[in-house]
Design brief:
By secondary structure, the chain is of the alpha+beta class. It contains 11 helices and 13 strands. InterPro entries: RGM (IPR040287), RGM_C (IPR009496), RGM_N (IPR010536).
């Protein structure tokens, strides 16, 4: 009888812990998107699969040349995971990939150092190659997916991944750095503050791309947002009477809009008050066309954790709250940015940068539901319902395990 009871208890304990493992895994899966929203392990996975497909050596291959190519692809895969390690901390898919790479390197006797796989070749050039959207429609049968990034005010950054941060970065920082486009912003401390900054310079480099566009540079500084490129031209890349690069301004000295049709990208540079701002609309394929070495991009990854500032609490009865409410009725990230800038500067005109950024977002984001990025103040987001339910079940299971049936 005692042995039977012990066996029952043992089986019950084993089953209980299996349930606990399942519940904990469920909690991790439901909470992962909020913790690892910047993790790019899926990009690493897809690049590795694409590289091996193009070489026709999935699984390694037995020939010496094929194995050398497979080892190069594995080393590129490993480098990609290293570049995204910080953002992927705690991500189950990431840790599985890292372990899998180690096993495959050993299995195929691949040296950990050596050449890496070459970047994917560009698609064949056609007559519509300088019209990104038209070419994409012909290849894919659908319109490209466009992403938006906005940098404005103190500065505040809305990333291509729809994350929102306020940064205290000083000096020159890359906002975008990919195969087609490089944008750098320079921030300087605001007067009377050692940790808040404003954008004082924006540099745009549009890279050479086949027959469509020659290298071109644009530079804006505080009190000087020119309606032309650095060489004085307003168009570039003439092909069949169409210019791949064009620049336009409806308020010279304070506004410039750059259209790069060969990469389907629009850039808007503004001076609002005593700060510059930048808004970008670009196809996902262009945004993601970077190498592992191009891993510092504020529009992609956001600013470093050590450089992020929390939004201060503002009482609804305060003048700042009333002022921003009159300009921005939705309690979204633009409203929060308005409050922050107004409290830091004490200047009512500083709220205009959030208003202009929202205007650009409306023009660049086709889905109206995605324009207003609604979020609670940093650190106060309540846990999702699935997480609450899973934790409740876990608590009850642990209570039964420790105390037994009541």
């Amino acid at each position: 009888m005692g042995m039977a009871a012990s066996a029952v208890r043992g089986n019950h304990s084993h089953t209980t812990w299996k349930h606990i493992v399942i519940i904990v895994t469920t909690v991790l899966l439901f909470s992962a998107p909020s913790v690892c929203a910047q993790c790019r392990i899926l990009r690493c996975n897809s690049d590795f699969v694409a590289a091996t497909l193009e070489m026709g050596i999935i699984g390694g291959g037995g020939k010496e040349g094929a194995n050398a190519g497979y080892c190069s692809a594995l080393r590129s895969y490993a480098l990609c995971t290293q570049r995204t390690a910080r953002a992927c901390r705690g991500d189950l898919a990431y840790h599985s990939a890292v372990q899998g790479i180690e096993d495959l390197l050993i299995q195929h006797r691949c040296p950990k150092t050596g050449p890496t796989a070459q970047p994917r070749p560009l698609p064949p050039f056609s007559g519509d190659g300088c019209f990104y959207e038209k070419g994409f429609m012909q290849r894919e049968g659908r319109a490209p997916e466009y992403l938006h990034c906005g940098v404005f005010g103190d500065p505040h950054v809305r990333t291509f991944n729809d994350e929102f941060q306020t940064c205290s970065v000083q000096g020159a920082w890359p906002l975008i750095d990919n195969q087609y486009l490089y944008i750098q912003a320079t921030s300087t401390p605001t007067r009377g503050s050692s940790y808040t900054t404003i954008l004082t310079k924006i540099t745009v480099i549009l890279k050479n791309w086949r027959e469509c566009a020659e290298p071109q540079m644009y530079e804006a500084q505080l009190d000087n947002v020119p309606p032309a490129f650095v060489d004085g031209s307003v168009t570039s890349g003439d092909r069949r009477g169409h210019q791949s690069l064009r620049i336009h301004s409806h308020d010279p000295g304070r506004h410039a809009e750059i259209w790069a049709t060969h990469i389907g990208t629009t850039l808007v540079v503004r001076q609002v008050g005593r700060s510059l701002s930048l808004s970008v609309r670009s196809p996902r394929a262009i945004v993601e066309s970077y190498t592992p070495e191009q891993d510092l991009q504020l529009c992609v990854w956001g600013c470093p954790v050590s450089q992020r500032l929390e939004m201060p609490h503002t009482h609804p009865s305060s003048p700042a709250y009333s002022h921003c409410s009159s300009l921005l009725p939705a309690r979204d990230v633009y409203f929060q940015a308005c409050l922050f800038d107004l409290q830091v500067t004490g200047d009512l005109n500083s709220s205009a940068s959030a208003v202009a950024a929202l205007k650009d977002a409306r023009a660049m984001i086709s889905d109206p539901d995605r324009v207003h990025l609604l979020t609670d103040r940093a650190g106060t987001n309540p846990p999702s319902l699935p997480v609450v339910l899973a934790l409740s079940v876990l608590t009850e299971t642990l209570r039964h395990t420790i105390l037994g049936p009541v």
